[in-house]
Amino acid sequence: MTAPFTFRRAVPADFDELWPILHEVFESGESYPHAPGTTKEEGYRYWIETPTVAIVAILDGRIAGTYYLRPNQVGLGSHVANAGYMVASWARGKGVGRALCLHSIEEAPRHGFKALQFNLVVASNAPAVHLWTSCGFTIIGTIPKAFDHKRLGLTDAYIMHRFV
Amino acid sequence: MTAPFTFRRAVPADFDELWPILHEVFESGESYPHAPGTTKEEGYRYWIETPTVAIVAILDGRIAGTYYLRPNQVGLGSHVANAGYMVASWARGKGVGRALCLHSIEEAPRHGFKALQFNLVVASNAPAVHLWTSCGFTIIGTIPKAFDHKRLGLTDAYIMHRFV
User: Fold this and answer.
1) How far apart are CA B29 and CA A37, in angstroms?
2) Which tens digit of pLDDT belongs to each residue from A25-51?
3) Fewest Cβ atoms nearer than 10 Å: which of A33, A91, A162, B16?
4) A143–B146: do the CB atoms touch at under 8 Å?
């Protein structure tokens, strides 16, 4: 059973609570291309300033997870969204990732998007691949050695896609 | 036989000669995601300001074609380059596209890149797909309906890749 999350748009004032979540993920060097050492300013630009929308999931009054949507290409490719998701470490195992993904599938068409595309799903990140697959995404391509994993070195990455 | 091109780095002063080339390609709405109506300023930012490097091929003293290289991802994905190529309409059929592509394969490692990735090769653009394939690129994925083609509507796009 999934905990009773509420969802709302992220606002700039959320970033002090969001940054520790992003920072931990970036420092791991296991799933996002942002290298360890990525600054708070870079994180803010990536997650708050440049996306079409960023959403937070609230559980017990705290930010349990978040995602963003942005056009994956300009102009004639802008109907396909790119999305990124993160779950706070204290909130893992509560279905937050799945809830965020399902929410994004509902949210994307409200911004005119017709599909979601993930450009770099690290192949070694089996839980993520499993989760996205269970949410209706398919692997449409594999980029060989596309990700310089902190522990594993050069690792394949998947491109995943679903219409919304 | 290929005409005797010379290659050099593009400089900001080249953009007055480059813009008509970019403009014609953008206005066609057939191959680049930049929609018809893309401004010269947007073109400058895309081709000159933000890439790692832009190169021009000179033939008879004029810019016959151009390409750029930039990291396709930040940080842990930045060893894979994205590239874009354009040939001036007056210079078509002279092997400029192939010469640019082969030059980029040599140039990319000088900037630390280990591979080239094209994110959106419009499937209807058969000459391009054929050219990239003949230069050693492979189709590693197909994004359904990823490109809103000016004449054909929503069209599949390929992701193409090769190590360098």
Assistant:
1) 40
2) 999 999 999 999 999 999 999 999 999
3) B16
4) no
The pair of structure tokens assigned to A80 is 């396909």
First to last CA, chain B: 24
Report which residue type is found at A32.
Y
3-state secondary structure (DSSP) of residue B20: helix
> Cα(B66)–Cα(B22) distance, rounded to whole angstroms?
9
Q: Are A70 and A50 in contact (CB under 8 A)?
A: yes
Please say if the pLDDT value at position B81 is more than 60.
yes
Please report which confidence band the pLDDT of residue B4 belongs to, taking 50, 70 and 90 as the band edges.
confident
Cβ-proximal residues to B91 (8 Å cutoff; 6+ apart), any chain: B59, B62, B64, B65
| DSSP H or E run through A104 | helix A96-107
Candidates 3.40.50.980, 3.10.20.30, 3.40.630.30, 3.40.50.300; correct CATH number of B6-163?
3.40.630.30
State the nearest Cα–Cα gap between A41 and chain B, in angstroms.
15
Of all residues in chain B, the one with the smallest CA distance to A79 is B146
Q: How confident is the model at residue A152 (pLDDT cuts 50, 70, 90)?
A: very high
Q: What is the interface pTM, i.e. ipTM, of the complex?
A: 0.94
